[in-house]
Amino acid sequence: MREIMADKDVLILGIESSCDETAASVVKNGRVILSDVIASQADFHEKYGGVVPEIASRMHVDAVYPCIKSALEQAKVSLNDIDAIAVTYGPGLVGALLVGLSAAKGLCAVSGKPLVGVNHLHGHICANYLCFDELKPPFICLCVSGGNTQIVLVKDYTDLEVLGRTRDDAAGEAIDKIARVIGLGYPGGPKMDKAGQGGNVTAYTFSKTHMGDTLDFSFSGIKTSALNTINQSKQKGEEINISDFAASYQTHIASILVKQTVEAVKRTGIKKVSLAGGVSANSFLRKAFDEASNKYGLELFYPNLRLCTDNAAMIASAGYFEFINGRVDTLDLNALPSLKLGK
Ligand code: KG4
After folding, report:
1. What pairs with residue 27 in β-bridges?
2. Burial (Cβ within 10 Å: 0-12, 13-18, ≥19) of residue 162
3. What DSSP line would sit under 117-158, residue for residue?
4. In the chain, N or C terminus with fewer CB closer than 10 Å?
């Protein structure tokens, strides 16, 4: 398939609906974004303090075809020009995934275009290819989104090995939950990031978790130690200094993410490191990686902020690499809410 495609541009329509963003995009050759349409539901879920799955599914139903139509129009192409339709089939909220997946299958059924199922986390990794033309595997990717935290060895465009993963909460979850407890609301990550600007990063301390000889993570104990600090302050009638607390907490989480990633670099000898997923937008994490980069001579890649969080361009990019590697799914492809990365 690679040779057949080599002399011709390959256009992929990507569709994403795994959580609270409905998105569609057209990407050329896995690296050039021709359109990138996102309909975010975040404002609707804010009053509930988190994503309400049924509301998310219903809103995806309203938004999915308008997003696809806009993505084709903005790219100035028709469905006929598209080589394959790539869609997220997991991990994510099952009802939400089914909307994008059914829309993609419907389009494939009527147009005869190939369907390519994409792992959402693979999409996050591929956001890096959309930002850096020069980035080629192998590299290490720290994938940190709302529901996942893992260190991935990207051996080739579609050959991924998970070197370490969280055993409980994702880093994003640990930030979002504490953000809610200290009254910052939803979505917590960006609000916590903003609140911590200028704060004292050593004002508060949190527990450390030892993961033995593994490259795994554990954030639930750290989250509990943050909750204990908040509760103890309340019992003493003292106010938490929100800015200092946010700065200390995010710096602590960032130091753990960096430590394990640097360990992965040492074990593999690969110094090219990328970040991926919503939490990779975090300024404390980026600062910690910048410092590690100077210390250990890393070559760092951060996707731009818009491509860190959920979007369909990254799904189209991952779909492109899967497609040219020969992946085509049948129309009975189902949603897999707990889909894992790697073999
Ligand atoms: O990748 P993403 O959009 O969705 C998933 O696939 O999970 O990530 C969403 C996560 C949320 O936890 C959100 O709070 C977090 O990314 N996030 C941030 C920042 N921007 C988004 N977390 C910390 N700092 C940020 N600046």
Report:
1. 12, 33
2. middle
3. EEEHHHHHHHHHHHH-TT--SSEEEEEE-SS-EEEEEEEETT
4. C
Q: Which of 58, 37, 32, 55 is nearest to 45 (CA)?
A: 55
Closest residue CA from atom 12 of ligand 1: 146
Cβ of residue 35 lying under 6 Å from some atom of ligand 1: no
172 CA to middle of ligand 1, Å?
6
Measured between its terminal Cα atoms, the distance across the chain in Å is: 22
Atom of ligand 1 nearest to the CA of 121: 6
Rounded to a whole number of angstroms, the CA Rg of the chain reads 20
pLDDT tens per residue, range 77-104? 999 999 999 999 999 999 999 999 999 9
Query: Edge-to-edge, what's the strand order for the sheet holding 32-40?
Result: 32-40, 21-28, 11-16, 84-90, 115-119
What secondary structure, in 3-state letters, does 255-272 show?
HHHHHHHHHHHHHHCCCE
Residue 3: per-residue pLDDT: 42
pTM reported for the whole predicted model: 0.95
Closest CA to 242 of 292, 278, 188: 188
Q: Take residue 21 and report the two structure tokens written for it.
A: 């963003």
Our measurement of the distance from residue 263's CA atom to the centroid of its chain's CA atoms, rounded to an integer in Å, reads 22
Q: How far away, in angstroms, is 243 Cα from ligand 1 center? A: 19
Sign of the C-alpha dihedral computed for residues 18, 258, 201 and 307 taken in this order: negative
Give the confidence band of 43 by pLDDT, cuts at 50, 70, 90.
Answer: confident
Cα dihedral 264, 270, 274, 276, rounded to 10, equals: -50
